[in-house]
Design brief:
The complex is a heterodimer of chains A (337) and B (306). Chain A is an alpha/beta fold and 337 residues long. Helix content of chain A is 29%, strand content 23%. In chain A, the strands form two sheets. An eight-stranded mixed beta sheet of chain A has the order 6-7-8-3-9-10-12-11, sandwiched between helices. Chain A has a four-stranded antiparallel beta sheet with strand order 2-1-4-5. Chain B has 306 residues and is mainly α. Chain B has helices at 2-29, 34-37, 44-54, 60-72, 87-122, 127-141, 144-158, 170-200, 203-210, 215-227, 229-252, 258-267, 271-299, 301-305. In chain B, α9 runs antiparallel to α10 (215-227) and α12 packs antiparallel against α13 (271-299). Chain B is flat. The chains are: A alpha/beta (337), B mainly alpha (306). At the A-B interface, α2, α3 and α6 of A face α9, α10 and α14 of B.
Chain lengths: 337, 306
C-alpha cells in the first residue's frame, strides 16, 4: 500500500479559505489539515458544496479572485510553504511540482489549439529545455496514458477526440513535468462507467511507476474503495474524519461517514430502500454553534449542539492516524452504526 | 475548409444578385430621371427622344437584363449630373479617399478597442474597466455627425490645431477618422470585454493557469484567441460601416469620397451613379464579411472541419 517512512510530500495545516460577499463572510474551507505521502492516494470525499473542490483549488493557489482568499494555514509542498509565495514564484511551482486534473474533459482543453500544442506547452513549462525531442516526449506521454496512435493524436483538435481520450490528454498534461502531487478533482465523474474503470486503473498504474501522490476529490465512495489508501471526509468546510481506507469502511467513527457508507448502493446486500441522511447540510453563512452535523445526527447529545468537537482518535486508533471530530468518541464502547 | 469557402461564396453571389434587383427596382420607384435632365418646357418630342435613348420605353425585365449585362462589364452608364463621366469611373475616382479615411478609422478603433476590451475584462471593476464601460456607453449614444461637428468646433475652430474640412495630408484625416472610429470603438470594446469575461471563466483557461503559464500567455493565447471570434464577426459589419458611415461624416467634413458622391448623386437623381455606388458598397460589404467568415473558420477548428 502506501510507501512507508516519513515521505510526506504535501502537508496542509489549519488551511482556511474566506469568501467575503455582500451576504457576509463564509469559510468554505475551514481549518483543514491533511498529509499526503509519496505514492499515496488520499480521497477527499464529501457532498457538493462541502468545500472539497475549493480545497483543491486553494492548494494550487487558484481560488476564484477576488472573491476567495486563503486567510490562515500552511500548505507545505516538500517543505516549502506555498501560502506566502509571490504569484510569480507560485507559477513556477504550478504544473511543475503540483498539477491538477479538472472534472470536465469536454471543457478543460482549449478548442482552438491542437493536443500537441497544449502538451508542448506543459512540457516546456516543466523545464526550459530546447524544443528538440518535445514531440517524442509528448507522444511518449500519450502512450503512457494509453492513447492509441499518439503521434497522430498530437495533430488532432480536442473536438476530434472522445471524452475518455480527452481526459487521458488532460492526465498527460498533468504528468508532463513529473509533479510530486496531482490534485484530481472528480476526474471520472463525466466519463462512462467502463471508461471510468479504465481511467482509475491507469491512474493506479502511473502512480506505481512514478510515485506521484494523488489527492483524489470525489463524492463517490465506490471510487474511494477502489483507488484510495487514505480517506478524508469533508462536511460543511471541515474534515470530520480521516484515516486509512480500511478503517474508514470497517470502523467509521463519525456518524456522517457511517451514514454516507450506508447510503452507497451495494451489489451483494440488496436493501429494499437506500437509507438517506435526513435533512440538508447547513448553509455556510449560518453554521450551528457546535458540531455542524449535529442537527442531522441521530447520535447527537446536548453538548454536540453547544460546542464544536475537537479531533479525537478514531476507532482505528491514533497509531493508524485515524481521527474524527465527534464528542461521542470519548466513550470507547460507542459506535455510530 | 474548401467546401465551406465555396458554399459561403455561393451565398455571397446570390446576395449580390438580389441587390441588383433591389437597386434596379428602387431606382425606378423614385420617379423619372427625365424631370431633372430636361428643362420644364421640353417638348413631347424631346421627352420621347430621351426616353428611347435611355431605354426607358422598354418593358422592365428587358431594362433589368440590359442593366445587369452592362453592370457585369462594369458599365453603369454615364452620369447624368456630371455629363459624359462613366458612373463607375466616378465611384472609383472617389474610392481612395474613402478607403484611406475608413482604413485609418478601423486602425484607430482596433488599436484602441481590442487592448482596452481585454484589459477591462482581466481587471474587472478596476478604473480601466469603468473607463471602458463609459466609452462603450458614450460611443453608442453619440451620433457621428454630431461628434464630427463638435470635433470641428473644438479642435479646428477653437484650438485651431487641425483643419476644419477638405482633403490634404494626414492632418485633414484625423478628425473625420476619429468621428468614424468613435462608434466602432464603443461597439468593439463592449464585445471584446464581454467575450473575454466569458472565456476567462472557462475550464481551459483554468487549466492553462494550472500548467503554470505566464498570465500574459493565458490571457492573449488561451483566452483571446477564443474570444476573438466575437469582435471578428463584428469586424465584417465594421468594414461595411466604414463605407456607409462615410456618407454622413464625409458630408460633415466635405471629404471628397464615395459617401459624399452618393449624397450628391441622390440629390441630382443621378441613377447610374446611385446604382454604381450602392452596388459597389454592397460588393465591398459582402467581400469583407466573406473574408471574416473565412478568418472565423481558420480561428475555430470546429468550424473549419465542420
Amino acid at each position: 500500500m502506501a510507501a512507508g517512512g516519513d515521505s510526506t510530500v504535501l502537508k496542509v495545516r489549519g488551511l482556511r479559505v474566506e469568501i467575503a460577499s455582500a451576504a457576509g463572510v463564509i469559510h468554505p474551507v475551514d481549518d483543514i489539515s491533511l498529509d499526503l505521502r509519496a505514492g499515496e492516494t488520499l480521497g477527499l470525499v464529501g457532498e457538493s458544496g462541502s468545500g472539497k473542490s475549493m480545497t483543491g483549488l486553494a492548494l494550487l493557489r487558484l481560488l476564484p479572485r477576488p472573491a476567495a482568499r486563503i486567510v490562515a494555514g500552511r500548505i507545505e509542498l516538500d517543505g516549502t510553504d506555498l501560502v506566502p509565495l509571490s504569484e510569480g514564484a507560485m507559477r513556477r511551482i504550478r504544473g511543475r511540482r503540483i498539477a491538477m486534473i479538472l472534472q470536465d474533459p469536454q471543457a478543460s482543453l482549449n478548442p482552438a489549439f491542437t493536443i500537441g500544442n497544449q502538451l508542448f506547452e506543459a512540457l516546456r513549462a516543466g523545464d526550459r529545455s530546447p524544443r528538440q525531442g518535445l514531440r517524442a516526449r509528448a507522444a511518449g506521454l500519450l502512450r503512457l496514458l494509453g492513447l492509441p496512435a499518439p503521434e497522430e493524436r498530437l495533430q488532432a483538435y480536442p473536438h476530434q477526440l472522445s471524452g475518455g481520450m480527452r481526459q487521458r490528454v488532460v492526465g498527460a498534461i498533468a504528468l508532463a513535468s513529473d509533479p510530486q502531487v496531482i490534485v484530481a478533482d472528480e476526474p471520472t465523474t463525466a466519463l462512462d462507467l467502463t471508461i471510468q474503470a479504465q481511467y482509475l486503473a491507469l491512474l493506479e498504474d502511473i502512480q506505481k511507476r512514478t510515485g506521484v501522490a494523488i489527492l483524489f476529490i470525489t463524492h463517490d465512495f465506490g471510487v474511494v474503495a477502489r483507488l484510495c489508501h487514505r480517506v478524508a471526509v469533508m462536511y460543511a468546510g471541515r474534515i470530520v474524519e480521516q484515516g486509512d481506507v480500511r478503517d474508514i469502511f470497517d470502523r467509521p467513527s463519525h456518524p456522517y461517514t457511517a451514514a454516507l457508507i450506508r447510503s452507497v448502493p451495494s451489489l451483494t446486500a440488496r436493501a429494499a430502500r437506500l437509507p438517506a441522511i435526513a435533512g440538508q447540510p447547513p448553509p455556510l453563512s449560518a453554521l450551528p454553534a457546535g458540531c455542524s452535523f449535529a442537527p442531522r445526527c441521530a447520535h447527537a447529545q446536548p453538548r454536540c449542539l453547544a460546542q464544536a468537537p475537537p479531533e479525537l482518535p478514531g476507532r482505528g486508533g491514533a497509531e493508524n492516524r485515524h481521527v474524527a471530530r465527534c464528542w461521542r468518541l470519548e466513550d470507547p464502547s460507542w459506535t455510530p452504526d | 475548409m474548401i467546401r465551406f469557402a465555396l458554399s459561403r461564396l455561393a451565398q455571397v453571389l446570390f446576395t449580390i444578385w438580389a441587390i441588383t434587383v433591389l437597386v434596379f427596382a428602387l431606382s425606378h420607384a423614385t420617379g423619372s430621371p427625365l424631370d431633372t435632365l430636361l428643362p420644364d418646357d421640353a417638348t413631347p418630342e424631346q421627352i420621347a427622344a430621351l426616353t428611347s435613348r435611355l431605354g426607358l420605353d422598354q418593358p422592365y425585365h428587358i431594362q433589368y437584363l440590359r442593366f445587369l449585362g452592362s453592370a457585369l462589364q462594369g458599365d453603369f452608364g454615364d452620369s447624368l449630373r456630371w455629363r459624359g463621366e462613366p458612373a463607375l469611373g466616378l465611384v472609383l475616382d472617389r474610392l481612395p479617399a474613402t478607403l484611406s479615411l475608413g482604413g485609418l478609422a478601423v486602425l484607430i478603433s482596433l488599436a484602441v478597442a481590442l487592448p482596452l476590451g481585454v484589459v477591462a475584462a482581466t481587471r474587472k471593476d478596476s478604473w480601466i474597466d469603468l473607463l471602458a464601460r463609459a466609452i462603450a456607453l458614450l460611443g453608442q449614444a453619440i451620433p457621428a455627425f454630431w461628434l464630427g461637428i463638435v470635433l470641428i468646433w473644438v479642435f479646428a475652430v477653437w484650438l485651431q490645431w487641425l483643419p476644419t474640412s477638405g482633403q490634404g495630408g494626414l492632418r485633414h484625416m484625423i478628425l473625420p477618422a476619429i468621428a468614424i472610429a468613435w462608434f466602432q470603438i464603443a461597439a468593439l470594446v463592449r464585445l471584446t470585454r464581454s467575450a473575454m469575461l466569458d472565456v476567462l471563466d472557462t475550464e481551459y483557461v483554468k487549466l492553462a493557469r494550472i500548467k503554470g503559464l505566464a498570465e500574459s500567455r493565458v490571457v492573449w493565447k488561451h483566452a483571446f484567441v477564443n474570444a476573438a471570434s466575437v469582435p471578428l464577426t463584428y469586424f465584417g459589419i465594421l468594414a461595411g460601416s466604414v463605407l456607409t458611415g462615410s456618407i454622413v461624416v464625409e458630408t460633415v467634413f466635405s471629404w471628397p469620397g464615395t459617401g459624399w458622391l452618393a449624397i450628391e448623386a441622390i440629390r441630382g437623381r443621378d441613377f447610374p451613379v446611385i446604382q454604381a455606388v450602392v452596388l459597389f458598397f454592397a460588393v465591398i460589404f459582402l467581400a469583407a464579411n466573406y473574408l471574416v467568415d473565412l478568418l472565423y473558420a481558420w480561428l475555430d477548428p470546429r468550424v473549419r472541419h465542420g
